[in-house]
């Protein structure tokens, strides 16, 4: 088995998914209701934040996804005691016995996750040292960690690159710093927050990312006792405090999962009520969804996304940091765009290689040309650098069933949608990767009336 296949199996197994391939008979609209839980891209960081407290933290609305399992394992090897609380989806994290972990244990638990880099600030505060192995994550570009290392050095950390990973120490403690990010990186902004809250003195971060998940992390840190001010110009100021307590917090729901099911409703000509979806966190997505020809109804508990029965329209999308169109939303939506009448363009400006997933769609009959040029109004970091980061999608096309292999998390969900909308039968393998970020997706497909079998 290749390493991607093994990775997929590990992710699936972590959440009790015993199969890694599903056969889908496409062409049935997805109709029904599903419920969101806490956002993957907040919950995992909130779990790391628990290390900063001098008492236990209680996190609610935690999804059963393999990324959560990985972070829990990493916390446990660092001496954090983790246990389920009385409420479904409640996790109690007690960091009172935090200790240095063995490099081999960190390596074994980290798997392909990038979260270990965010342990550095909190561990430097608690223990004066931190170690991170080689980092993985989805294969959607180089995904360097240079911003993170520069941030940590700004706070006074000493960074040593070893053959086995990166070792950091802070023999004289960490001090507040003036930090300016060259790009509003989500992870680097979180790195600054998780490090600055206990650093001595004031930190000023400019060029910060301001995604809703980051705002919710700030909510958590404030509950713990941090003093953080967010200005309107991507500037965040943090006044370091000497100690933080634990938190009790209900994680905001997963808007990326909501957008994925919305795209599935549109592509399969169905109707999906997504419980927990919130308009204010999805404004940009909702605008595009409507322009493509989808519609939605919003109430207090969630949003129903549906196909109106009319032909879909082409759109031009440029992915961007919040409040722009999230990069994580483009892959699922591309399947619907292949069915729209006319030429759509998706200019990916966040990751340099996020169109690997379209090969399978082309094999299924989609007409998608991936170009090196910046096709859009934005000059992005990847123009003139030979990255295939703009997709031209000509429709309408009818997708045919095929044997396809999931390449990464969001690309994988897009493959599921493609198989669900295709004529005939498709076999989708490596579906375990989808368990990294989509809770109970097999059960949800069943609830929505998908026609599929799980292959042993
Ligand atoms: N970057 C650097 N150097 C760094 C860090 C980032 O060059 O040190 C670059 C990246 O290579 C990328 C860009 O900056 O081109 C943005 O990366 P960012 O740091 O914002 O991404 P991240 O924190 O690694 C999180 C999410 C991603 C999501 C992005 C953008 C988590 C665990 N991951 O990644 O989610 O796409 O922000 O919003 O929060 C997903 O959920 O499928 C996923 C990939």
Could you please describe the fold and organization of this structure?
The chain folds into two domains: 237 residues, UDP-n-acetylglucosamine1-carboxyvinyl-transferase, Chain (Alpha-beta prism); 211 residues, Enolpyruvate transferase domain (UDP-n-acetylglucosamine1-carboxyvinyl-transferase, Chain, Alpha-beta prism). Helix content is 32%, strand content 23%. Strand 4 and strand 5 form a beta hairpin. Helix 1 crosses helix 3, helix 2 packs parallel to helix 8 and helix 9 packs parallel to helix 13. Uridine-diphosphate-2(N-acetylglucosaminyl) butyric acid binds next to helix 2, helix 6, helix 7, helix 11 and helix 13.
How many runs of DSSP E, i.e. beta strands?
23
Structural class: alpha+beta
Number of helical stretches of at least 4 residues: 14
Order of strands, main sheet, comes to 21-22-1-23
Shape: globular
Rg value: 22 Å
Describe the protein's topology.
Elements: H1 3-14, E1 21-25, E2 31-35, H2 40-49, E3 57-60, H3 66-77, E4 81-84, E5 91-94, H4 103-110, H5 116-127, E6 129-132, H6 146-154, E7 158-162, E8 165-169, E9 178-180, H7 186-196, E10 202-206, H8 212-224, E11 227-230, E12 235-239, E13 248-250, H9 255-267, E14 271-275, H10 283-292, E15 294-298, E16 302-307, E17 316-318, H11 327-338, E18 342-347, H12 358-363, E19 367-371, E20 390-395, E21 403-405, H13 409-421, E22 425-429, H14 441-447, E23 452-455
Parallel strand pairs: 2-14, 3-13, 9-10, 17-18, 21-22
Antiparallel strand pairs: 1-22, 1-23, 3-5, 4-5, 6-8, 7-8, 10-12, 11-12, 14-16, 15-16, 18-20, 19-20
Helix pairs in contact: 1-3, 2-3, 2-8, 3-4, 5-7, 6-7, 7-8, 9-11, 9-13, 11-13
